[in-house]
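User: Okay, second chain of the day. Same drill as before: sequence in, structure tokens out.
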Amino acid sequence: MSELVIGVLIAGLIGIGTTLVLDQFRRWRLGSDLKSALIPELEYLQVLLAQVIVDLRLKDRSIDEELIRWIVDINCTYDGPDARSDEQKKRFADLTSLSNDELLKYADATAVKGKGLELKKYDLAFMRSQLTQLSVLPTRVQSSLLILLFRIDIWNQGVEHYWLYFNCTFTANASPQLITAAYDNLGRSYGFLATQAKRICDKISDTIKLLQ
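Assistant: Same drill. Structure tokens below.
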């Protein structure tokens, strides 16, 4: 084989190798940028839902010490947009000194009769916009992120049902049976939504660990 042919082959191999290295670097860089952007979005949603869980559990009088400690931990470690002030964190942390019975009394004292919760739908807008790019992340991370979107969709469906039940309680000329059923469904929706929100928050914690 002539030296010219050998030189061409070597140059070709070097070119292929360089392309592969550059492609791997591009994927690594894109993955790193995605992680840096995804983590703050996940943390923000988690702290928002944590407060919603408190509101829901206060509403159905199922709040307890363990939940309060969990919420306080999330609030005290979060320092992103809309983070609580040190004074607010302290006031919230003071609730950890209350027993379960005292927390129930607190729930009764803060309850507003006849007023529903202003529940709303949530989403991970940035993550959804990057779905076609998630393939650069490890398979476990991709799976965890997609499960998160699935659980958020369940939450949003639950919120739709909540508002349906809530509006039924104000339906003009509604039968007593319909009003009673609406209130029953409304009461059950508090527990359902609190459970779904907690599952989302727990999945966020797991996903962030995978992203770090």
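The radius of gyration is 25 Å.

User: Thanks, on to the next one.
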